[in-house]
Design a protein that fits this description.
It contains no helices and 18 strands. By secondary structure, it is an all-beta fold. The strands form five sheets. Strands 2, 3, 5, 6, 9, 10 and 11 form a seven-stranded antiparallel beta sheet that branches. Strands 1, 4, 7, 8 and 12 form a five-stranded mixed beta sheet that branches. Strands 13-14 form a two-stranded antiparallel sheet. The protein is elongated, with a radius of gyration of 20 Å. It starts with 9 loop residues before the first strand and ends with a strand.
Length: 212
């Protein structure tokens, strides 16, 4: 097996669970980011995961999404991030419940940073990616990214970001005599806004889908 774009690296529709079984690279005290293009219809990142290949001491992991510096072809602004506990075992380390807005077709960098461990912590990678940037001696994901210590093309790291797509509603609203698409509906439940994923209308005693 290997780290494959769209499966266990880059933007994915579903989170991977299996060992990528890729090549190993040292990652503690290092920030690294891989370059990816947001898929068609993608609107936000809800989960980021990174694979830890070996058992080492407990430490924190920062994960995040950077915008793209097109001039220098590297990560730019940190759009959203979170910290998770690495634990002491190998496997996927995951942060769920994220809400990082992205635009379909735009370029982003999926990033991670592992704090120092007495035993060298290793991640996974394979060839076949677009670009990997690494920064050594890092204690967090910096904002902005800044200078890269070690860039390398054609590598995909075992870092993924689960994305969601917009919920179509088949509805329009008239604004200034122009009809605009209604991309989504929300309802407030207990002080939190929730997406409405299905609407039906009763026509002649039969419930018909409006959307969903």
């Amino acid at each position: 097996m290997a780290v494959v774009l769209g499966t266990n690296g880059g933007f994915v529709a579903a989170a991977p669970t299996a060992d990528p079984a890729g090549s190993v690279l040292d990652i503690d005290t290092t920030a690294w980011a891989t370059k990816h293009v947001a898929p068609a219809g993608a609107t936000k990142v809800t989960e980021i995961g990174v694979y830890i290949d070996n058992a080492t001491e407990a430490a924190d992991i920062d994960v995040g999404i950077y915008s793209h510096d097109a001039i220098n072809d590297k990560p730019d602004v940190l759009l959203g991030s979170a910290t998770i506990a690495k634990g002491t075992g190998a496997g996927w380390k995951v942060k769920t419940g994220l809400n990082i807005a992205i635009t379909p077709g735009a370029t982003y960098w999926i990033a991670a940073q592992v704090d120092d461990t007495a035993t060298t912590t290793q991640g996974n990678y394979s060839t076949g990616g677009i670009y990997l940037h690494r920064k050594h001696a890092q204690t967090s994901l910096t904002n902005p990214w800044g200078e890269t210590t070690w860039p390398n093309s054609g590598i995909v790291a075992a870092i993924y970001a689960v994305y969601t797509t917009a919920v179509g509603t088949n509805m329009k609203i008239n604004i200034g005599d122009t009809f605009k698409d209604v991309d989504s509906l929300k309802i407030n439940i207990g002080g939190a806004w929730k997406d409405v994923t299905k609407v039906q209308q009763n026509i002649g005693g039969v419930w018909k889908d409006v959307f969903g």
